[in-house]
Amino acid sequence: MKEKMFISLVLLMMALSSKAQTVTVHADKPGDVIPKEIYGQFAEHLGTCIYGGLWVGKDSDIPNQDGYRTDVLNALKELKVPVLRWPGGCFADEYHWMDGIGPKEKRPKMVNNNWGGTIEDNSFGTHEFFNLCELLGAEPYLSGNVGSGTVEELAKWVEYITSDGDSPMANLRRQNGREKSWNLKYLGVGNESWGCGGSMRPEYYADLFRRYSTYCRNYDGHHLFKIASGASDYDYNWTKVLMQNAGGNMAGLSLHYYTVPGWSGSKGSATNFTKDQYYWTIGKCREIEDVLKKHIEIMDEKDPKNRVALLLDEWGTWWDEEPGTVRGHLFQQNSMRDAIVASTSLDIFHKYTRRLKMCNIAQIVNVLQSMILTKGDKMVLTPTYYVFKQYNVHQDATYIPVDVECDMMEIKGANRKFDAKLPLVSATASKDKNGVCHISLTNVSVDKEQTVTVNLEGIKAAKATGTILCTANIDDLNTFDNPDKVKETAFKAVSVKNGQMKVKLPKNSVVTLELK
Ligand code: AHR
Prior knowledge:
about 525 residues, alpha/beta, binds alpha-L-arabinofuranose, 6-stranded antiparallel β-sheet, 27 strands, about 25% helix, 8-stranded parallel β-barrel
């Protein structure tokens, strides 16, 4: 008798401690459009992002199209890259664009002081960047030099790119082989102006922003979307002062947030980490939600009409460089942990698109949390690449509000400002222009499979099909010798009945489903 009572008690305790994993999708409630620019990318003259990653030059033995790597180009086309930020980052505030035009042999070299002192030969410049954007069908996002450049230099760059008249810069462009202007909408006026972009105070930079942006003119039907260099992480004062002093002059304000254990000392290995370090990382990545809310709150106060956009134009994981690679080149591997950071972050970004209009993961190839890694003529697609591919369906779709009720995990580890409790399921949903609903689900747990019940409110569906990205171990990754270890495959463990969907999510998995 006593034994029976004990067993019942244990069962009851188990039932209480493990709640059902429930996601409720409210297609009956309104949501904002998820701008495709939330899936933006960033390419800096840093390490092998440009040289060796995107660009090998026309004379290379590596197969290329006009100097751009064919394999990388094709892989990126699959991602539908909506916008590409260039040339930095910190590099932007030391970059002098005139060094990167005209005959290659005449282009002067420079030292890339921010990134390992590498010699930059300027063979990839304005023409090479804008032509790349055209090949990818991506909107260019130009980051202008305010830190060490002049107003005249930036003003002339805009004229060179966008003027179609008989203007001196348009004629110089023509002389260099490009007749018509390129499309340019997004113009960043400086980068990290509080740090590598000039170590400025917000009051001083706000004035400089006003001055520089005054002379960046709208030529011949082009209309620039001028972006002020924004805060990093928790620097709410920067946002406040910028909005106060220059809010009326800007179309957008940027923000940078990295999932990084800290800025001094080791950032930890990209490939070798403990379970506790993994959960800490997901907690840190989720903290972006609080950071976004606080910056948005300030913007709402100063700009109640919601005119100025917030652009998270640098985000992602930042680990120690891979052993054996060049210091300062920020080449890091990318595991399933990074993929979970990507899906969890995107799930959060979808919720804030009333104000948040663009995000640019750092960076597209060979730097930080990249989509693609290259070595000589070899290329691997990272787990993060596959998340971006799965999530493509959410670009320009209307966000569907989602509630998640799930088990939580206690986060251990120092240097934590964020909540100690981590939800083990992350989810997002949207309805595309054809009325098709997509749901993405992430099982954050490294230990257990989870069956999620998805309540489909306001959606009529009979079945769901989709793909899964899943690994046996959270530190699994793709290498040049084993490039296909982590890959999306068709997903079958889903059923739909009476307005409910049951999804069996293996540990370490990201699933995207289309409802039919
Ligand atoms: O993405 C790498 C660097 O991180 C960028 O150059 C800079 O803006 C940021 O600090």
